[in-house]
Amino acid sequence: MLTSIKNRSVIVTGGSKGIGKGIAQVFAA
Fold it and tell me: Does the reported pTM lie above 0.90?
């Protein structure tokens, strides 16, 4: 999944908490 959206714009909802935060950290890495 991550590789399929790697080159696309990613909008993370709920980025300040829960799974949104985890996803945001992955893309920020």
Answer: no
